[in-house]
Amino acid sequence: MYATSLPSFNRQKRPLTRLPPPPVEAIGYIGRAIGHSEPKILGPYLIQTLFILVAPALFAATIYMTLGRLMLATNAASLSLIRANWVTKIFVIGDVFTFFIQAGGGGIMASTDADKAKLGQNVVLGGLFLQILIFGFFVLVAAVFHVRLRKQRKLVKEMEVPVGVEWEKTLAVLYLVSGLIMARNIVRVVEFIGGREGPLLTVEWTTYVFDALFMAATMAVWLAPYVVGLKRGKVLAGGAEGSTELGHV
How far apart are CA 164 and CA 241, in angstroms? Predict the structure, then answer.
């Protein structure tokens, strides 16, 4: 699987972060297109429900891993609200949990039984609410780390972040993509609260604007540092130190 990373750091031979590519989301929209032509077939509906619904959780996992690596790379792990080596574990475990909740709920929603479909909808809502709470706590952890690191650097002038660690730019990217995914999840909550006959689920454009467009924007923001580095000739073969690299996972 191909993935794109933000700049790697001197103390790490591996890239700072990797982002799952769009295939999961794309598969969902392929199922949606097939379902439009074959509305009576359950398979396409199940595919679009599951793959479009859970794709942001994969983006979220990468975002969580990035913050943990950033804390370690800046030699400022002690400034985190929670232990830096636990940041990735805690948030990714929570993300995986919400992933399975939403996937399970999406599967139940495909039932032809009205009561089971309603149950599936409530399960998905629970997963989305939990994901929003986890995201909110994540942003808080990132913001506190950001403020503390800036304050520490002002107080201790000799404190130096390793060369190649563009921590403020990385945090800015984290804030932007987190905001996009958070907004997308809030819209999905409103959709599911309204039900199958609600104003948001009975029209097509809301899915393309508040889901597809938001996820495309997330990818664009995440890929921007790599593209800029490529244009400046900073992409080095073999993942050299301080480089921006295109790798595999």
Answer: 8
Residue type, 22: P
Q: What is the DSSP string of 127-179?
A: HHHHHHHHHHHHHHHHHHHHHHHHHHHHH-TT--PPTT--HHHHHHHHHHHHH
Phi, psi of 243 (to 5 degrees): -100, 165
Half-sphere exposure of 4 (CA within 13 A, CB side): 17
Q: Quote the CA–CA distance of 37 and 40 in Å, as a whole number.
A: 9
pLDDT tens string 154-205: 665 555 666 566 888 889 999 999 999 999 999 989 888 887 777 777 788 8
Q: Are strands 246-248 and 2-4 parallel, antiparallel or unpaired?
A: antiparallel
What does the block give as tokens for 167?
Answer: 């921590």
| pLDDT of 239 over the 80 cut | no
Q: DSSP readout, 46-73?
A: HHHHHHHHHHHHHHHHHHHHHHHHHHHH
Taking a C-beta distance cutoff of 8 angstroms, is the pair 124, 105 a contact? yes
Residue 2, strand partner residues = 248
What mean pLDDT is predicted for residues 86-111?
88
Contact 130, 141 (CB under 8 A): no
